[in-house]
């Protein structure tokens, strides 16, 4: 449930690396459908950056068209499969890591943010704005997507890859990121400190530097 505003603070740094293209992951009901749609509208050859669910799509796309993908950056993502129960919880409006409210809890909390920022009014407004613009139909499509375990196919992605983990991410574990990096043949693992799940919003400059350094180092 993130639109192009997720990347707003990173646009100057990303534009310095090349032409920016935003993939459409809003109209399909499967990772394969999303990957095909992104691929159909993408440049002939490109570096793929997938955030969170976008990392799942990026995995499928990179295997679908390896001749077109120069490199892949997986940001706050995973290859862990989702159980049927988890998918049903997502359809019902629950997110991974949700917990019942406790007495004294703040009325508005985003568990996707660093614990010190989970009530930040500016960040909450941006998250709500993206969700409002995308609407219920997109949420339902994305929540219901099957996400089978993908660790076994990661060795097939042979282009350079960057796995970015966030130290205080409460939606993705460090172990998931480390396992991804171990399975990818040409991977680099990087950790953003003092950051929750929403790295492009919380630490845009740090993430931009990681992407730029990786692209330069591997010659993309």
Descriptive report:
The chain is α/β, with parallel strands linked by helices. The protein has a single domain, classed as Rossmann fold, CATH 3.40.50. The chain has eight helices and four strands, in the order H-H-E-H-E-H-H-E-H-E-H-H. A four-stranded parallel beta sheet has the order 1-2-3-4, with helices on both faces. Helix 2 crosses helix 3. The longest helix is centred in the middle third of the chain and has 23 residues, at 121-143. The chain is globular. The protein starts with 10 loop residues before the first helix and ends with a helix.
Can you tag this structure with a few keywords?
220 residues; alpha/beta; Rossmann fold; four-stranded parallel beta sheet; 8 helices; 4 strands
Chain-wise SSE layout:
Layout: H1 11-15, H2 31-41, E1 46-51, H3 53-64, E2 69-75, H4 84-91, H5 121-143, E3 161-166, H6 174-183, E4 187-192, H7 199-202, H8 204-217
Parallel strand pairs: 1-2, 2-3, 3-4
Helix pairs in contact: 2-3
| Number of helical segments with 4 or more residues | 8
Termini separation comes to 29 Å
* General form: globular
* CATH topology annotation: Rossmann fold
**Low-confidence regions:** 95-107
Q: How much is the radius of gyration in Å?
A: 17 Å
- Mean pLDDT, all residues: 91
Structural class call reads alpha/beta
Q: What's a quick, concise take on this entry?
A:
The protein is built from eight helices and four strands.
């Amino acid at each position: 449930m993130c639109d192009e505003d997720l990347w707003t603070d990173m646009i100057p740094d990303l534009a310095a690396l090349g032409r920016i293209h935003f993939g459409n992951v809003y109209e399909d009901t499967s990772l394969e459908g999303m990957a095909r749609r992104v691929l159909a509208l993408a440049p002939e050859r490109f570096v793929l950056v997938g955030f969170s669910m976008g990392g799942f799509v990026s995995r499928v796309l990179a295997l679908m068209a390896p001749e077109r993908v120069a490199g892949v950056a997986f940001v706050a993502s995973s290859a862990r499969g989702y159980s049927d129960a988890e998918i049903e919880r997502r359809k019902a409006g629950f997110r991974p890591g949700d917990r019942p409210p406790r007495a004294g809890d703040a009325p508005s909390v985003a568990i996707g943010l660093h614990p010190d920022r989970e009530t930040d009014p500016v960040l909450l407004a941006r998250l709500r704005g993206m969700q409002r613009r995308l609407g219920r139909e997109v949420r339902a499509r994305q929540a219901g997507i099957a996400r089978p375990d993908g660790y076994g196919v990661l060795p097939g992605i042979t282009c350079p890859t960057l796995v970015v983990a966030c130290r205080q991410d409460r939606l993705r574990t460090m172990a998931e990121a480390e396992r991804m990096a171990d399975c990818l043949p040409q991977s680099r693992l990087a950790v953003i400190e003092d950051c929750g799940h929403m790295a492009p919003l919380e630490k845009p400059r740090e993430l931009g530097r990681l992407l730029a350094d990786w692209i330069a180092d591997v010659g993309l």
